[in-house]
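Session log. Operator J.P. requested a structure for one protein chain; no other inputs attached. Running the standard single-chain path with token output.
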Amino acid sequence: MHPFQCVLRARRCLRRGPLASVSWLLLRTCRAHSSVPSFACPSPQRQQEDGVWKDFSSRLATGPTFQDFLRSASVPPEQPSSSEVEDPPPYLTVDELLGRQRRVYLETYGCQMNVNDTEIAWSILQKSGYLRTSNLQEADVILLVTCSIREKAEQTIWNRLHQLKSLKSKRLRSRVPLRIGILGCMAERLKEEILNREKMVDILAGPDAYRDLPRLLAVAESGQQAANVLLSLDETYADVMPVQTSPSATSAFVSIMRGCDNMCSYCIVPFTRGRERSRPVASILEEVRKLSEQGLKEVTLLGQNVNSFRDNSEVQFNNAVSTNLSRGFSTNYKAKQGGLRFAHLLDQVSRIDPEMRIRFTSPHPKDFPDEVLQLIRERDNICKQIHLPAQSGSSRVLEAMRRGYSREAYVELIHHIRESIPGVSLSSDFIAGFCGETEEDHLQTVSLLREVQYNIGFLFAYSMRQKTRAYHRLKDDIPEEVKLRRLEELITVFREEATKANKSFVGCTQLVLVEGPSKRSAADLCGRNDGNLKVIFADVEMEDATDSGLRVRAQPGDYVLVKITSASSQTLKGHVLCKTTLKDSTAYC
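Structure written below.
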């Protein structure tokens, strides 16, 4: 091999592998074609030496430098277009990474974050040549996007796998083999236990490994099980545009950050979704603009701890300003400095489309500084609804949960929010029967439900999770029957108080975003008001206030005014007045 070919071969290797392999390649090639020591590789023809090495120098000078191998924190790497396929690993060909029109069936379990993850996973697979199917029988690949927050959620997946086992075993030999994959939090928590327990499972992909799905499926085609459950410190899928799973949807979820640093003692999320990292603001705004252009009328900003958002992707964002916390709240981690905060993002998102509602979930009570509350109050298109997870009404239990606040601080925040945002709707999460919870602790939670009167509630019995601090430090000492009895009492009290709170809407006019037909009656439509309560009303002709004199029927995505006539703990009912716009509705509501 000519020495010049050595360098060109090394240059090609530079693009593919680490510098160490390049050094090894240069050394190996030069030694193979020269009798001189390894630190030099001159040509045997001395008369050509100067010309050859001058040519080397000029060519190498225009080649990559050390900086070319460093990823800038402020500039995201270029991504291949939809028509390009990334270089495959050595054991696969480009063709093997392609879906070749195999049909994928996706099932989603758990929270809204999993809904968004499903859309991200499908976007990646679609670009690799897979097709989507809603028919389980015609699927070539079945992917379950899973939840691991409670044992019941995982048991649901085990039961589903048992159902799918017969489908896989009865697969006709004339068809390509059926592949089954577990995605998301359960894959991350249990890892190889799933592969060992259910040999029918072909692939595992944790929440940060969806980009690797084409490779995992390609490996599975050879009959091997494949897994990637590595957590990332920087993966946010900022460059992946989620594909909406419902073409007729009026709303969408937009993930703005991933992971959680709070380390509450009961929670598995930091162990299944990793540390907090936020998407660059610019990529979020671009996604929201595209959703607005598609005609969607509502966006929910998503994150495990959504209001702790902190974009430090640009050097100029990293000022020395500390995070502002709600009064009386603390964190389990060192105060974070700099970055563009949630108030900045919320401000920018709300400016994109005045006719698009903005929601966000799930927040932590500690991250509600006054600037966020003021913005919610001032912007008509930011919904006056706040999710404020309490988890318990007992300060002693809250301390054991490592929540970073007392009951008194939480109640003070409730009062402050209601003073700052008149008419705000509140929702919350509660856990019944946490480690060491006494009857007195339980009664304090009951009294908090009565004191606050939440409009919406999510209540669950405690489920011990491996890896959590509670698993290692506390004892799950509340009998299951006691947990369930306390849960039923909390649910009963919540419904009583929510009914009282929701009856305050009776006689009022509410702006409702129409979602579609009611599930209980084809003669009714349903939608949601600003407070995220379901509103049911008759599907009848009404005045179109946006086009004087015209009478229309409401369609999904329309804003309508509904006068509320009755209320329960979960639903408002009323009669529709007219079609309107978000901007014009402020004169009525």
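Operator note: The CA atoms of residues 30 and 41 lie 6 Å apart.
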